[in-house]
Amino acid sequence: MTGEGRPEPVLSDMRGLFLVLLFFAELAAWAAIGVSAYLMAGNGWRRALVAGGVVVVTLVLWGLLASPKSVAPRPVKLVVQLVVFAAAVAGLLIVGHVRFAGLLTGLIVTAAIGERVTRPRDVTGN
């Protein structure tokens, strides 16, 4: 922290990187949910319909409850984010994509911790 209550310049620069990583983690989680739903659904046209439906429901819930512009309380946002990220990783594990599940977990954890560490604090230190 500098004397005027502004974040250190290095942390400000890193914050942008972690926000981009967090956005990519969200995109990857939504894609993983779609792929997992597709691979777990039945044969034929139902596969695409189920996968598309699951992704649409996930995106609508995310937009309403977990997006930065959502008016939902912070605990609700955190729970929805946790459920979506956990569902993405669990889905990949269930369909046998263990390496992708590990990579996605690493991306999510790195991005979330980095975003939290570089989050600007107000003058009171919160």
Walkthrough of the structure:
This protein has 126 residues and is mostly helical. The chain has one domain. It is built from 4 helices and no strands. Helix 1 runs antiparallel to helix 2, helix 1 (9-40) crosses helix 3 and helix 3 (74-94) packs antiparallel against helix 4 (98-117). The radius of gyration is 17 Å and the shape is globular.
Report on the biggest sheet.
Answer: none
Uncertain regions: pLDDT < 50 for 5+ in a row? none
The number of helices is: 4
Oligomeric state as shown: single chain
Instruction: Kindly estimate the percentage of residues that lie in beta strands according to DSSP.
Output: under 5%
Q: What integer value in Å does the Rg equal?
A: 17 Å
Distance between the termini: 13 Å
The dominant shape is globular
Sequence of secondary-structure elements: HHHH
Could you estimate the helical fraction of the residues in percent?
A: over 70%
User: What would the average pLDDT be, to the nearest integer?
Assistant: 90
Structural class: mainly alpha
Whole-number count of domains: 1
Structure summary:
This protein has 126 residues and is mostly helical. The protein is 75% helix and 0% strand.
Question: Helix and strand layout, with pairings?
Answer:
Layout (H helix, E strand, L loop, with lengths): L8 H32 L4 H21 L8 H21 L3 H20 L9
Helix pairs in contact: 1-2, 1-3, 1-4, 2-3, 3-4
Core attributes:
mainly alpha; globular; single chain; 126 residues
